[in-house]
Write a structure and sequence with these properties.
Elements (H helix, E strand, L loop, with lengths): L5 E7 L16 E2 L2 E2 H10 L5 E6 L3 H14 L5 E6 L6 H9 L8 E6 L11 H5 L7 E7 L8 E4 L5 E5 L6 H4 L3 E10 H8 L15 H8 L4 E5 L12 H21 L3 E2 L6 E2 L4 E2 L4 E2 L4 E3 L3 E2 L4 E2 L4 E3 L2 E2 L4 E2 L4 E3 L2 E2 L4 E2 L4 E2 L4 E2 L4 E4 L2 E7 L4 E4 L2 E7 L4 E2 L4 E3 L9 E3 L4 E2 L4 E3 L2 E3 L4 E2 L4 E2 L8 E2 L11 H13 L1
Parallel strand pairs: 1-4, 1-6, 4-5, 7-11, 12-15, 13-16, 14-17, 15-18, 16-19, 17-20, 18-21, 19-22, 20-23, 21-24, 22-25, 23-26, 24-27, 25-28, 26-28, 27-29, 28-30, 29-31, 30-33, 31-34, 32-35, 33-36, 34-37, 35-38, 37-39
Antiparallel strand pairs: 2-3, 6-10, 7-10, 8-9
Helix pairs in contact: 1-2, 6-7
């Protein structure tokens, strides 16, 4: 059946009661993508004229996810949500969607919104099936255990007769191993006719979409069930246990792809990687690493492990030591970060920057070769190339109402345990003495020292201890 003039219906109205969640089933995630997002991406692969998403439970949340997906597309596709206010089965859901489809002739793809392993390639057998010519194609699968699925009932010659849901199966039908995936491709005219014929004559008292098969057979319209070569992409998630199992499978698949492309993993089973992460060749990814969101890892990067990197860009040949958190930040080439460093949103590191243990940055730019190696907080700052920020330094950027900027010039040296009270500028090549509280600008090449005079009282400590001991006794 041709992919031309294609429209699609995605069924996403269900609650997913076995998830035991207030979140709609289709919004649960696998590898950073919702089940609905995966269904939308699968359909978008074929560039349909329009996609209609049937929503119901958690309607506002589902509509918001559809909108986020639509905004992510480079080539826009018309996507419309329709509400199934009363959920009376899959057939009723399609009836609800019918009026939102463009009225012109063509082919209609129908699929559930909860098959997270689907890809565009999964549906190819439907579109390539041409013999015998059919107006309705079903994607089916042969499984060892068909429990819980509708069965494909055929004549002895292989002709499709019906799909029978498990609760309505006879003992003989329960032994059938070919199951319905819930994915259909059919001509618009046939859908219009068959969907209106549905009756709730079943154990669930619902309108079954599967009954369009029997209608087509009775109307002598050819039906073909195309057996998918692999059942893996057709696995669904009805419980959190199944969801976790599918996520492991998808993660293993992605890690295998990365390894075949030249990435090394310390323990391939102990990393957590979202869909769409880019990792360059000759990277080493340590155990416990989490690469999330829209993250890009350049070639030759070493990540020791136990780090969480979200929506960030890591330049080539960077070294991320143990237990770092990096969020919405960018690192140039050859940077070193950690261990135990925290780069908060808006952190930008140029080439060869060193961020050491227990250093936190936020909305801060560090120029090429700058260093902050220990126990430092840098917030709302611009730090010049080759500047050195000593241990215990903090930028006092917040006055209780507003954030203020600290500027540290190129080649400046900030002594340990210094407090830079923003707004303040430290000039290029200036030196701030250890323990200073700087509240005024420091000129280029100047020395700024702020500390009180040291007073020494001979034997004061000895006398203090003696008094303390006498009072205790």
């Amino acid at each position: 059946m041709s992919v031309s003039d294609l429209q699609a219906i995605i069924l996403a109205a269900g609650k997913g009661t076995r998830m035991y969640s207030t979140l709609p089933k289709v919004l649960h995630t696998i590898c950073g993508r919702s089940l609905l997002w995966k269904a939308l991406a699968t359909v978008a692969h074929y560039k349909p004229r329009k996609i209609v998403v049937v929503v119901g439970y958690g309607e506002e949340l589902v509509r918001a996810e559809v909108e986020r997906f639509a905004k992510s597309l480079t080539d826009p596709i018309k996507i419309e949500c329709v509400t199934q206010s009363e959920q009376r089965g899959t057939g009723h859901a399609v009836q609800t969607a019918l009026s939102a489809l463009d009225p012109s002739p063509g082919n209609i793809l129908i699929l559930p919104g909860d098959l997270p392993l689907l890809t565009g390639g999964t549906l190819l057998p439907l579109f390539s099936a041409e013999t015998p010519p059919a107006k309705l194609h079903i994607l089916s699968c042969d499984v060892p255990d068909p429990t819980g699925f509708g069965r494909i009932v055929r004549e002895e010659d292989g002709t499709v007769l019906a799909i029978v849901e498990e609760k309505d199966c006879s003992e003989e039908e329960r032994d059938i191993s070919e199951i319905n995936s819930g994915i259909y491709l059919l001509e618009r005219e046939l859908l219009n006719e068959s969907i209106q014929s549905l009756q709730p004559n079943n154990a669930q008292k619902e309108l079954y979409l599967t009954d369009i098969v029997e209608f087509s057979v009775d109307a002598e319209q050819p039906v073909e069930a195309v057996i998918a070569p692999d059942c893996y992409p057709l696995l669904g998630a009805n419980t959190r246990l199944e969801l976790a199992s599918l996520e492991r499978m998808r993660r293993d698949e992605m890690v295998s792809e990365y390894m075949l492309a030249g990435v090394s993993f310390e323990d391939p089973s102990a990393v957590y990687i979202d869909e769409g992460i880019l990792i360059g060749r000759d990277c080493f990814i340590g155990a416990g690493t989490r690469l999330l969101g829209a993250t890009t890892i350049g070639s030759g990067v070493i990540i020791d492990g136990q780090s969480r990197i979200l929506n960030s860009t890591i330049g080539a040949s960077c070294y991320i030591k143990l237990n770092c958190v990096i969020t919405s930040s960018s690192l140039g080439e050859d940077c070193s970060v950690g261990p135990f460093a925290h780069l908060r949103p808006g952190s930008r590191l140029e080439r060869r920057v060193h961020i050491g243990n227990f250093v936190e940055t936020k909305k801060t730019e560090l120029g090429e070769g700058a260093k902050a190696n220990h126990l430092t907080y840098l917030g709302d700052s611009v730090i010049g190339a080759n500047a050195n920020v000593g241990a215990g330094t903090i930028t006092c950027n917040y006055d209780g109402f507003n954030k203020h900027l600290t500027e540290i010039g190129e080649g400046a040296f900030i002594g340990s345990n210094s407090s830079l009270v923003a707004p303040v500028k430290i000039g290029a090549r200036a030196i701030v003495g250890a323990g200073s509280v700087i509240t005024k600008d420091v000129a280029e090449d100047a020395l700024a020292v702020e500390r009180s005079e040291v007073r020494t009282l001979p034997e004061w400590a000895k006398n203090f201890r003696a008094r303390h001991k006498k009072s205790v006794s």
